[in-house]
Amino acid sequence: MNALELTDVRKVYPVGDSEVVALDHASLTLGQNEILALVGPSGSGKTTLLSIAGGILSPSSGKVVVGGEDISDYSNGQLTRFRQEKVGFVFQSVNLVPFLTAAENLFVVDELGPRTGKPARATAGKLLDELGLAERTKNLPSQLSGGERQRVAIGRALMNDPDLVLFDEPTSALDTGLGAQVMELIRSEMKQRGISAIVVTHDPRITEYCDRTVQIVDGELSA
Ligand SMILES: Nc1ncnc2c1ncn2[C@@H]1O[C@H](COP(=O)(O)OP(=O)(O)OP(=O)(O)O)[C@@H](O)[C@H]1O
Ligand SMILES: [Mg+2]
Questions:
Q1: Which residue out of 10, 20, 199 has the highest number of ligand 1 atoms within 8 Å of its CB and is therefore the one to mutate?
Q2: Does CATH number 3.40.50.300 belong to domain 4-222?
Q3: Contact indicator for 196, 33 with CB cutoff of 8 Å
Q4: d(Cα 90, Cα 82) in Å, to the nearest integer?
Q5: What are the pLDDT digits (tens) for 176-188?
Q6: Pocket probe mutation, ligand 1, options 44, 49, 169, max atoms within 8 Å of Cβ
């Protein structure tokens, strides 16, 4: 079973009286434990594709199957449940809650659904430990370096034990050396856990840490 199958996906955003076609005829297969790099210019549809693959947005038309589950026509409630069970997100802007510590940022995510309380705290501690942040669990985001913040965001994406993790430019705020370190960490965490991933990037050096690269231009994919 494939981790992700997009078939002829189209996404149209209404803007005033007109519309923007953000994705068109997008078909893509992601294998089990595969890490795919998605590369394309600004505005080409990368975040839109990630959002549809992760059940944040529904496609205007076409089919979206994640781990054998067809989510194409899911309601908002069904999508929320799907995200809680299957998907992790790491956003470009990291999006840590500024007034919560590193550990708290891991166990407060709403994507956790029912998995809160003590077990979540234990999982958060274990993950931060694995990510080399055992000494930083009580730090606020403002008391962490850029790379450390990104590691907290990776930990947060792993809290619900996802099958698929979607990374939107995870290294864009980091210098080259740190970006490479974070990509190495992402690769080893994904491979070790058997998770499939899509990594959106502008940076050709980042694609070396991925198994395969797909280009996107004006909402259309090409290998
Ligand atoms: N909510 C929205 N409403 C209207 N248009 C949108 C919306 N979100 C994105 N778009 C448009 O859809 C197209 C694709 O946007 P998207 O955010 O997927 O691009 P991207 O490849 O992630 O760009 P970047 O590299 O700058 O993050 C762009 O033309 C954008 O202006
Ligand atoms: Mg984007």
A1: 20
A2: yes
A3: yes
A4: 17
A5: 888 888 899 999 9
A6: 44
